[in-house]
């Protein structure tokens, strides 16, 4: 069974090729990704706890959803698709910034991603896919700050990097 492909990029997010997702993560090659942040009208941020069956960062808390666009798919379209697949939610998304990060996991996988960070507002029902999401909750931003200080190991590596960068867009 073929794995989905990711879009390989350089440090300027210029496409350099494609590769099966797991191979790119084994080799630690830079590829395009996205992270969706969702707030509600009360200014609370949606966090999801990743399913305990995920191949890395299982059971950790993170932003609304993350993934990779398919070759030929725009980042916004991919983010909207994954938001619906993971949480059963749809809302307009806007890219607010991007950054590059690299994280090595105990299982030998390496996330080396050019991450496009998108923001949306959503107040409707959430119907998570249990193979992707174990739990979800809207939190006040100050509560997230405090939780990250008190229990940093309960959050994904990319959330530790993206959350502080997102704060100016929430104020």
Descriptive overview:
This protein is α+β, with helices and mostly antiparallel strands and 171 residues long. It is built from 4 helices and 9 strands; from the N terminus they run ββαββββαβββαα. Strands 6-3-8-7 form a 4-stranded mixed β-sheet, sandwiched between helices. A 3-stranded antiparallel β-sheet has the order 5-4-9. A two-stranded antiparallel ribbon has the order 1-2. The protein is globular and about 40 Å long. The chain starts with a strand and ends with a helix.
Q: In angstroms, what is the radius of gyration?
A: 15 Å
Give me the strand/helix succession: EEHEEEEHEEEHH
Classify the secondary structure makeup into a structural class. Answer: alpha+beta
Residue windows where pLDDT falls under 50 for at least 5 positions: none
Overall pLDDT metric: 95
Which second-level CATH architecture applies? Alpha-Beta Complex
Main sheet characteristics: 4 strands, mixed
Strand order of the largest sheet: 6-3-8-7
Q: Share of helix among residues?
A: 25-40%
CATH superfamily: Nucleoside Triphosphate Pyrophosphohydrolase
**CATH level 3 topology:** Nucleoside Triphosphate Pyrophosphohydrolase
Shape: globular
* Total discrete domains: 1
Could you give the count of β-strands? Answer: 9
Strand-residue proportion: 35-45%
**Multimeric state of these chains?**
single chain
Which CATH top level class fits?
Answer: Alpha Beta
User: What is the first-to-last residue Cα distance?
Assistant: 45 Å
Quickly count the helices. 4
């Amino acid at each position: 069974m073929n794995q989905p492909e990711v879009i390989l990029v350089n440090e300027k997010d210029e496409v350099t090729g494609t590769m099966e997702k797991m191979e790119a993560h084994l080799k630690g090659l830079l590829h395009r990704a996205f992270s969706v942040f969702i707030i509600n009208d009360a200014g609370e941020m949606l966090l999801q706890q990743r399913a305990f069956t995920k191949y890395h960062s299982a059971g950790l808390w993170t932003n609304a959803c993350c993934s990779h666009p398919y070759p030929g798919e725009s980042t916004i379209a991919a983010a909207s698709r994954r938001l619906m697949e993971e949480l059963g939610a749809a809302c307009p998304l806007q890219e607010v910034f991007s950054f590059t990060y690299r994280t090595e996991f105990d299982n030998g996988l390496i996330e080396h991603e050019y991450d496009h960070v998108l923001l949306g507002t959503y107040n409707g029902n959430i119907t998570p896919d249990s193979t992707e999401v174990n739990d979800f909750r809207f939190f006040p931003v100050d509560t997230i700050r405090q939780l990250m200080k008190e229990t940093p190991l309960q959050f994904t590596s990319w959330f530790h990097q993206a959350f502080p960068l997102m704060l100016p867009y929430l104020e």
